[in-house]
Amino acid sequence: MTATITLDRAPLGTPLLLTSTHPDATVARRLASLGLRRGARLSLVQRLAAGGRIVSVSGGRVAVDADVLSRLEAEVAA
Amino acid sequence: MSEAPGVTRTGGRQLPISPKLPTVRAACHGPVGADAGAGAPIIALAGAPNVGKSTLFNALTGLRATTGNWPGTTVDVGRGAWRFKADDRVCACVECSGECAVNRVHEFSLVDLPGTYSLDPLSRDEELTRTLLVDAPVAERPDAVVVVADAAHLARSLYLVAQLRETTHRVVVALTMNDVARKAGVEVDSYALAESLGCPVVVLDPRRRQGLDNLTRAVREALARPTPSPRLTGAAALDDLSRDDERFAWVESAVRAGTTGSGAERVSTSDRVDRVATHPVAGPLLFLAVMWLVFQVTTTVAAPLQDALDGLFSGPVSDAVRGGLAFLGLGGSWVEGLLVDGLVAGVGMLLTFVPLMALMFVLLALLEDSGYMARAAVVTDRLMRTIGLPGKAFLPLVVGFGCNVPAIAATRILGDARQRVLVALLVPFTSCTARLTVYVMLGTIFFERAAGTAVFVMYLASIFAVVGVGLVLRRTLWRTMGAEPLVIDLPPYQAPTARLTAAVSWTRLQGFLRTASGIIVVTVCAVWLLQAIPAKPGYGFGEAPVRDSAYGVAAQAIAPAFAPAGFGQWQTASALVVGFVAKEAVISSWAQTYAVEEPEEGAEDLGDFGDQVAAAFESSSGGHPLPAVWAFLWFLMAYTPCVATLAAQRREVGLKWAVFGVAIGLVVAWLGAVAIFQVGRLFW
User: Fold this and answer.
1) Smallest CA–CA separation between B315 and chain A, in Å?
2) Nearest to A59 among B153, B274, B486 (CB)
3) Is residue B603 pLDDT above 70, yes or no?
4) Backbone Cα Rg of chain A
5) Model's pTM, two decimal places?
6) Given pLDDT bands bounded at 50, 70 and 90, which one contains residue B480?
7) Nearest-CA distance from B552 to chain A in Å?
């Protein structure tokens, strides 16, 4: 069984598989519209102030703050 | 005003959101001539933000595009005529009038809907799109929907198509950003994609106006087909989560069928730039440098142009009008006063803003088109969140330190109407360069070598006022405005195009001139009129000194209100009244007031003027001139900057909020000034 980790703790540059959705439906829908939904392959490419990250997903880049990242779980992609 | 800001709006066509729904057919009436004729098919342009939708709109409508205010949402919806020739052949007419079957121009009415990723609204902008496409009666919906899709991020763009296939809309997909996709290693097969989506797909480049004819043809062919039945997907029977999964699966299937390659793992040029632009330390420094550049350009570069225009109107133009009136025997009459001191001065003042506004709009367009604005929003997000605003709200506030008028216009970068209103109310507290002239003058008179420090203190006071008023409003009228999490799409950087920058800037400048021209000219004329009307017997129209004019008498009536703040002289009050029109006019009118009162003192000499001002503050403050000067400076910083700002506020957030802003400014200015003087007099 592969260990999951919240995105705020995930390392940069590692291919990840998103395994959860945000508990807030509105935020979850916004994330999904940008490609960040359960099953999506992603990687973190840049640190931002206050723990935020730039996420690479579906060929695009999304800036996400630390609070949102802490509610999203992922596992290292095969 | 207890309701959330931005839910009402003036200046546009009134459209209730509920229960009577706005419709594309009923609601998008722009000025005559801007839109297509009655009966033209209505085509809605929809799509996610940052996919080139508005660029395509401008490319299809040229500069005929107009925007209409949508009350209830405070959303700008563009509408314009999309004109085209229906026949590709060359006509055989000997002398073609343009009305033959081949050359006749046809048109669609094109509606540019607010950017949205889906038909499930998360903001007021997106609510409007859903209302127009889904909730409006079928007969009042657009005849076809062009979904603008980003080829580089196709999956994000197609969810909207997935939802539209469940409605009766004719859909055409316009595929943009194909060059960006190719650079990222993504190749799109438009035929395979069209087959998978079940609707036409047109590859185009709106920034270079390529592929527009193909889009026209695709839309005409779509209109020739009957309205499609809603696609039966089974989604209606599912819960929200399952329905989303079904749609995303359909989108992924279409993307797999229509694309080859993926740029997901490539480190792009944008990534390399973002390592600096969004870096926790370097990012804010770069942002400050960009803002400093914007500030410098809009103040220093525009200044000589403004001076030249000012000189032109106060010199040759005024002289020419005087000469013409003298030729007609009206020299020295009230007609000369009205035309020269009223209309010419008013128009001149308006036009002096044009270089400033043009430069600001160009810079904003460049920042928007390049993709940097999204990064600026990221690096300022944390700071602005303290007053409940997103990071990009910082931009108009910074611009406000140059001039409040373009800063108000810059609030358009904010998508949320409530945020736009809040920032538009905070901008006047940013200390513009016009106020700087008064700071420097009073600093020189009262603080001599410490004048620079005094000016710096005023800028700190300005920041304090912005944050303080922002916090108060956030916790009162804006308390229901939730804090948004930071989830921002970062589009790839791209080189701005001159055509697009010019078109966007010109459209915005036209909008400013249309709205501001009336209020500025009327106000300047009103001030002249008040100064010309004698308030005491013995004077004819235009002959009374300022003290005995209606203007002077009004200033004397207002002056006691400033006594608790230590500057209750009528001359000072009159300077503040003029300052309401424009802070640029404060010093000249102030000096003129003393010159009229005591001409033998030779008030043209700034030294004497300084002595008179110092003596006046000494007298009115009961021997505490320094607290009175600080109180005056605070008042000058905090109350309404000028009528041009008021006009800009009216345009951007409506008359009600503009008036509310004036009231806030006066209250904050007066209370602060009184507090400063009353506390300060205990120590100085």
Assistant:
1) 53
2) B153
3) no
4) 11
5) 0.71
6) confident
7) 55
Interchain CB distance below 8 Å, B280 and A60: no
Q: Residue B592: which pLDDT band, with cuts at 50, 70 and 90?
A: low
Closest by CA to B69, choosing from B126, B1, B136, B128, is: B128
Across chain B, mean pLDDT equals: 81
Q: What is the CA radius of gyration of chain B?
A: 29
CA–CA separation, B535 vs A53, rounded Å?
67
Domain boundaries, chain A: 4-76
Largest CA distance in chain A: 33
- Chain B positions touching A63 (Cβ under 8 A) are 278, 374, 378, 486-488, 490
Question: If residue B60 lies in a helix (H) or strand (E), which one and from where to where?
Answer: helix B53-61
Are B487 and A56 inside 8 Å of each other by CB? no
Q: In chain A, what residues touch B122 (CB-CB under 8 Å)?
A: 26, 29-30
Higher pLDDT, residue B274 or B362: B274
Chain B contact residues (CB < 8 Å to A): 48, 117-118, 120, 122, 152-153, 155-156, 159, 184, 186, 240, 244, 248, 262-265, 267, 270-271, 274-275, 278-280, 283-284, 374, 378-379, 381-382, 485-490, 492
CATH second-level architecture of A4-76?
Roll (2.30)
Q: What is the pLDDT of residue B465?
A: 95
**Rounded Cα distance, B146 and B20, in Å:** 25
Measured between beta carbons, the chain B residues lying within 8 angstroms of A27 are 485, 487
A-chain residues within 8 Å CB-CB of B494? none
Q: Which residues on B lie below 8 Å from A34 (Cβ)?
A: 117, 156, 487, 489
Is the CB of residue B424 less than 8 Å from the CB of residue B653? yes
The count of residues in chain A is 78
For B380, the closest chain A residue by CA position comes to: A49
Instruction: Give the domains, in start order, of chain B with CATH numbers.
Output: 24-266 (3.40.50.300)
**Tens digit of each residue's pLDDT (9 = 90 or more) over B620-636:** 999 999 999 999 999 99
Residue B264 is predicted with a pLDDT of: 54
- What pLDDT is attached to residue B470? 92
Q: What was the pLDDT predicted at B324?
A: 93
Q: Kindly tell me the sign of the dihedral angle through the C-alpha atoms of B250, B256, B258, B263.
A: positive
User: Average pLDDT for residues B596-604, to the nearest whole number?
Assistant: 43
pLDDT digits (tens, 9 = 90+) for B129-138: 888 898 888 7
Interface list for chain A against chain B, based on CB atoms closer than 8 Å: 15, 25-27, 29-35, 37, 41, 43, 45-50, 52, 54, 56-65, 67-68
The 3 state secondary structure assigned to chain A is CCCEEEHHHCCCCCCEEECCCCCCHHHHHHHHHCCCCCCCEEEEEEECHHHCEEEEECCEEEEECHHHHCCCEEEECC
H or E segment and range at residue B69: strand B66-70
Q: Residues B583, B432: contact at Cβ < 8 Å?
A: yes
Is the pLDDT at B265 greater than 70, yes or no?
no
